[in-house]
Write a structure and sequence with these properties.
transmembrane; single chain; 73% helix
């Protein structure tokens, strides 16, 4: 039976922050990649998903709301 390391899970708060601000997700990835690989992978994936979301949201804001 494999024991789960509770420290190797990215919290919901940091998941949302790394999705909303991808540089923070990249920082969390590089900070935790050696000691907590699952936490680092989750932060990196969230940051990579956050980039296209930010681009689309920026386009919508500039075109339809501010323009």
């Amino acid at each position: 039976m494999k024991m789960k390391n509770n420290n190797d899970v990215l919290s919901g708060f940091w998941l949302a922050v790394s999705n909303a601000a991808p540089p923070i997700g990249f920082f969390l990835y590089f900070r935790h990649r050696a000691q907590y690989p699952n936490k680092a992978k989750r932060a990196l994936i969230s940051a990579l998903i956050g980039i296209p979301i930010a681009i689309v949201a920026g386009y919508i804001m500039n075109t339809y709301i501010l323009g």
